[in-house]
Specification:
By secondary structure, this protein is α+β, with helices and mostly antiparallel strands. It has three domains: about 15-60 and about 185-255 and about 475-495, D-Maltodextrin-Binding Protein, domain 2 (3-Layer(aba) Sandwich); about 65-175, Alpha-Beta Complex (Dipeptide-binding Protein, domain 1), CATH 3.90.76.10; about 265-465, Dipeptide-binding Protein, Domain 3 (Dipeptide-binding Protein, domain 3, Roll), CATH 3.10.105. It has helices spanning about 50-55, 105-120, 130, 155-160, 225-235, 250, 280-290, 295-300, 330-340, 355-370, 385-390, 425-435, 440-455, and strands at about 30-35, 65, 70-75, 75-80, 90-95, 135-140, 145-150, 185-190, 195-200, 215-220, 240, 255-270, 305-310, 345-355, 375-380, 400-405, 460-470, 475, 495. The strands form five sheets. Strands 11, 12, 13, 14, 15, 16 and 17 form a seven-stranded mixed beta sheet that branches. It has a four-stranded mixed beta sheet with strand order 1-10-9-8, with helices on one face. The chain has a four-stranded antiparallel beta sheet with strand order 4-5-7-6. Strand 6 and strand 7 form a beta hairpin. The longest helix is centred in the C-terminal third of the chain and has 17 residues, at about 440-455. The chain starts with about 30 loop residues before the first strand and ends with a strand.
Amino acid sequence: MRFPLRAAAVFAVSGAMVFAVAAQGRKDAAVIGITLEPPGLDPTTAPAAAIGEIVHYNVLEGLTKIQMDGTVSPLLAESWKLEPDGKTYTFKLRRGVKFHDGEAFDAADVKWSFERAKAEGSTNKARKQVFDNIARIDTPDPHTVIVTLDNADGDFLFRMGENTAVILDPKSAATTATRPVGTGPFTFTHWAKGSAVTLTKWDGFRNAAAVKLKRVTFRFINDPAAQVAALLAGDVDAFPRFQASQSLAQFKSDPRFSVAVGGTEGKTMLSINHRRKPLDDVRVRRAIAHAIDRKALIDGAMDGYGKPIGSHMVPSDAGYVDLTGTYPYDPEKAKALLKEAGVATPLQLSLTLPPPQYARKGGEVVAAQLAKVGIVAKIENVEWAQWLSGTFKGNFDLSIVSHVEPLDIMVYANPQYYFGYDSKAFQALMKKYNGTTNPRERTKLIGDAQRMLAGDAVNAWLFQLPQFAVGSARLKGLWSSSPVFANDMAAVYWQ
């Protein structure tokens, strides 16, 4: 994550020899570039998407699996049945599954993992409400789990496929952050801090014959120019989420590489801290929204890639409502709203930016646009760990970040969440939505939720984060879109 990273840099770190395997033409290993180094490898204890990019579906598995197109399929659960009330799920588990340390996987592990997530003091905060909604877990036999919910949740099967719902073994759970033990096709081998994580194919996997790669190395490179250099030098075989959008044309014209442009669940937005004045005033938040020219932002920060959004859903989500017209770019309207709110300009605010290019380059564009209406946004560049320990704890004025968790509009019902939106009306709306199973009614309610967030100008939504998958033309099977941030390496192979 903190490489100096010049073109074709040589890495004098422990385990660095693994980076050369792809360049030598071997077909049993791959080096995958990712932008951010995770704070740990336990997705049940930290919200960082980079954790899932490494371990989800590779090392750690849940009851269900979310495919690249967003559909849900069986994983550790081979089948399930939902009772008519929408509250009781009966999962039938796969037989003969073992954890990497030889421990048998059974219903007791599912019960323990979910009760751990639900327990008071649980660090599984990203999806705490999902587990809090579980009223009871019954295990009538080692291969059956019956989950009874307090309130019906139409998204429950999808939630069971997210990395927050992976199943851990009680005997090894405590060390998951540094040495994850799961049931997946790869075992954790080595973490060279600051450089890479290496996984090795597990021969004990239930479908090991279908897994072609014997080793996968995830290498951390957050500088877009260094990502380009690493690909061209052959040090990295692919970047599933390539950051240097300005270099896409170069790779598209090079037959050695393949380029796929897709979408993600990333709701890129200017987060606003409601706990700080004058940002607690909806007129000030609306002024900020009117001050931003999304097209200029997308052109300047993303080289024209990315779809504008006006609330906390993306166009590929079921029930999405286009609300980009709620706050059209209107600097004069922004100035008038600030004056109406009694704000003396220039208004001094901080703008905290994590490492990804969309944030750093986007922050420069947004700061320049805000300045035109009398808001001076002082840029503070931070590393991801700082963002999680500071901004995510509520220590900020403004920040640009992409919320990549799917179907996460529910976070706005939590007044303790980092931007501090506390709306009893929205909380009631979400409670009604979660308790509704009728598809037509759910679509109406989720539309109402998006409109309420936009009306309250909770944040200033910018664009859907696109996905650029760039890699060797011979490497097949990588995801080109990300309904969840995962890299399913069991499906990847060399042609």
